[in-house]
Every structure is written in C-alpha cells, then in structure tokens.
Amino acid sequence: MYRSHTCGELRSDHIGNQVTLAGWVQRSRDLGGMTFLDLRDRYGITQLAFNEEDNADLCAAARKLGREFVIQIKGEVIERSSKNKNLPTGDIEIKVAELKLLNASKLPPFTIEDETDGGDELRMQYRYLDLRRKPVQQKLLLRNKLALETRKYLDDQGFIDVETPVLIKSTPEGARDFVVPSRMNEGEFYALPQSPQTFKQLLMVSGFDRYYQIVKCFRDEDLRADRQPEFTQIDCEMAFVEQEDILNTFEGLIKHLFSAVRGVDFTEKFPRMTYEEAMQRYGSDKPDIRFGMEFVDLNAVAKGKGFAIFDAAETVLAINAEGCSEYTRKQLDALTDWVKRPQIGAKGLVYVKCNTDGTYKSSVDKFYSQEDLAEWAAAANAKAGDLLLVLSGDLHATRKQMNELRLHMGNELELRDSNTFKPLWVIDFPLLEWDEESGRYHAMHHPFTSPKPEDVALLATDPGKVRANAYDLAMNGVELGGGSIRIHDRQLQSDMFDLLGFTKEEAEAQFGFLMSAFEYGAPPHGGLAFGLDRLAATMGGSESIRDYIAFPKNNSGRDVMIDAPSPLNEAQLNELGIKLK
Q1: Alpha-carbon gap, residue 275 to 255, rounded angstroms
Q2: Low pLDDT (below 50) residues in the chain
Q3: What fold, for 137-273+423-548?
Q4: pTM for this entry
Q5: What pLDDT does residue 174 have?
Q6: What is the spatial distance between Cα 88 and Cα 77, in angstroms, rounded to a whole number?
Q7: Tell me: domain 291-412, CATH 3.20.20.300, correct?
Q8: How far is residue 226's CA from residue 478's CA, in Å, rounded to a whole number?
Q9: Pairing between strand 423-427 and 272-274?
Q10: DSSP state string for 80-103
Q11: Strand order across the beta sheet in which 470-475 lies
Q12: What does the pLDDT read at residue 172?
C-alpha cells in the first residue's frame, strides 16, 4: 500500500498514529540539525520532519530531495511545535522513520505554487505540471461537481442520457465544420458536430421525450477567452413542451447548480427581457445587469444644434458614470483612445462633466449652451458629480461600441463583482438576420428554430420582422446557454429552407433524413444547451474558460503540449486519397 492517508487528511486526533504517505515534494527547509519537507498531493500538504540526532542518514537523504520528487514516507503523527493556521494539516507533522524515493524530477520550468512564475504559453506547454497547482485543480473539481449535479438534477426530472454520433454529416450551423476524411469512402468526409442538433430532434420523433447529454462539440472559428475549438455542452431536448415549460425546467437546473456547487440560492424567478429591449438598454443580447449605466437616447436634445457629427448620426447615445465628474483630462483622453481602438471602432468620444457647483463642462461646449447640457443631464438622470460619456453614429455599430465602453467603465469602477451573479432570460430574438455580403437572410440561431406562431404569416411578407421562439440565459455579461422551440412540421421547415436560400436539392441532400422523419408523427419539441465550460468559468469568477478544461488549445487552436495539429506523412495521405496543395 503506497499510502494509508492523503496529504490533506491528518489532524490533531491522528497524533500517535503510524501512517504512510506518498506524494510530491513541494519545498524543503534545511535548518541544520532539522530538515523539513512539505509533501503534496491533490488533497493537501503535510509537513515532514527529519531530525539529524535521531537518524543522520535519513536526514541526509531528505536534504538531497528536490522539488517535485515523488516519495513515500512512513512515520508517526506528532504535534507540530510551530503551528500553521493557513494549512488544514497545520497542527501536526510527521516524524519520518522511513523514506523511499519513488521517482526523481528534473527542475520544473516554473514553480508549482498557487502564484506561479510561469506564463500562459509555458504553462500550456507543460500542462501536466500546471495541473498540479491547487488553483487549477480547484477549477477542475468545480467543473466535476457541476457535471455531477447536472446529472443528478436531470435524472430526477426524468431525462435520459443518450449518446449521439461524433462522425456526422456536414451541415451549416453558423461556424465552419471540422472535417474528417473517410478512408473507406474515398473523397468523402465526415464532420465533427457543432452540436447534436438534428439527432436530439430525431430522439424526440423517436419518443424519448426528455433527452440530455454532456457532450463534446466542435467549431472551427476564431478563438478568444471564452471560446475553444472543442467545448462541452449540457445538451437537452424535451417533447410536448412550450417555451414556458423549458424556461421553468432549466431555470430550476441553474438554481440547483448554483446552490449545490457555489452555495448561492436564487429565491426569485429570473427576470426576462426581450431581445429588442436588451439591445435598446444595453446594446447586447447578453447584458451584464450587475450594474446600471443603461443607454440614454440623446437624439431629441443633442441633434439640430449645429454639431455636424451628431446631426448626421443615426443615433446619439450616452451612459451616466455616476460620481466620475472628477475624471482628469488624462483619464478622459485615455477613454477616447480606448474607444478609438480598431476592435472598438468609434471615431471619438464626447463627455459632459456635471460639476458639483451646478455647471457643466463638455468637450463640445462650443456647440451647446449650459441649458442644452442641462437637458442632456436631465435625460440621463445625471446629478452633480456625474459624468456623461457620449457616442454617435450608425445605430447598430454605436450600440455595440457603447456596450464595450459600458463594460469597460464597469471594470474601471469595480462594479462587476465576480461573486455577484445576476441571471437574465433574453427572449423574442429575431428569427432571421440579413447579410449584405451574400444578399440573403441567415438564421440568427439555426435553421430549425420555430417562428413565433403569431408571426408565421410574416414569413411570406416581411421576414425581417419575424420573431423566433428562442431564448438565451445570460449571466454577468456571458451567454450561459440558449435554445428554441423547434420546427416540427415538414412544410414549415421546407419554407424555412427556401427563405434561407437553400434549393430543394440542397435541402434534401443535407436534411432529407430530418424532413422525412417529420412525416412520421413528429411531436412539438424544443430544447436548450448550456456551455459547461462557460458555466464553470462564470461560477468560478473567471473570464477565460481555459483553466476549466484539462487540456485546452491556445488562441491559435494549437495544443502546444502535444504539438497538434501536425502534418500527416505521405503514406497516410495516400491511404486517404488526399493530395495537399
């Protein structure tokens, strides 16, 4: 037996016991006649004591051990003379009687500590070492708990865990597919699923009216902190349901998960907001409602005063940064530079300081009187000491820019507390969005989303006004998940494909199996999928999902630890019938 206890288990009531421990050497302290080692496993740290007077050879052997050496010890649990209140095991130590080296270690490329000196790329290259660090382990333990509690809740609700294929047919779902060549069918390719969308719908047709799966999905898209090319979904579908049934069921899931995993209890129903209202108030379909600074429309009071930039703009929007009138010129210039960055795209920033003496100071004083600026302040409910920040331009672009500025100010003013959780259902999304480049409509969610029943007639007359029977759950500015009521009627699905520009032949080739299934008694159905990685990161108070994935890719989609992707040799390519350009 390599160990009788873990390194996080022993306490004062074990004093006098003979124990066997095994783990990694965290650090060593040589105090002359005494040597102390910290022994670590994933459960904790226990101090080991070696006394030169008791056993000089054993003490000498302990001094030769370096960081991350793997050892086994036997000894007696004794009371620690200098207790460490920061360690659960800090009241005891082990008086070592036997020491066995299980494996030596090279000097690690970074320190295996809570606060490490290793950069992101280095830690990803040696991810197996990074995973030894307690903060990373805690993130994966949170994820494990999240998955376990998800299964418990859904099982209690009568959901059935069903696996769906990973090698499937390529279908358009918004992102590029990862494709896999077929050796047995030369010149043909599988695709890795962006989601199990069509399969879960087929399971509803099959009579499994409550399906779930914690499933890997794949999307070939540009990466950022909350995206990975392979990610995990809590994927769910229900039959004989309407939108209200789904929102209530999965609001219950989120409440259960936060209570069981984080000890956070939501006692009220989650608020709801239409997509149009969210865009109007926050410029985002996943607004962070932990703080205010809602958009204020200044069109009525800012236009027509001779300031050409505002007069020519489709919209003039402001936010009120309360208590920020003392911002210096340097700070305001920094904000202006920030919104003018290419990734934000604003041409400039106008400010209005609401001074404590009742006057106003603005970057556009030349065009607006004190009375004009007072009207701006009144429109924004700004009081003395507040600061208005104003952007203008095209409605869609300005809303997007102002959303970014609002979040930036939320960070600067420390209004986005990672331990505060504010959920929001966003409903009534547009069914379609017009793409200027291709000159046709695209599905905002996916082609299988049902329109609102009361809007179906508009599909033939005004498709852009059709609302989708779709919903997202946002929290703290993150989309945790989303879904929709699906189309279950073949004719309506066929009409949808026509509207999206599919020819009859293309629709049949890509989705004929689903269309055929709808002819055999498809029930009304709908579903929702949560991003497990995003949910874990939000619960853990992180913006990046990478630390909640055991072996993630970097921002270039590479696994730098195993050096993937990598070229195939000529024999493999020939076997697959592939010739590279």
Answers
A1: 23
A2: none
A3: BirA Bifunctional Protein; domain 2 (3.30.930)
A4: 0.92
A5: 65
A6: 14
A7: no
A8: 9
A9: parallel
A10: -SS--TTSTTTTEEEEEEEEEEEE
A11: 160-161, 210-218, 230-239, 525-531, 478-485, 470-475, 423-427, 272-274
A12: 62
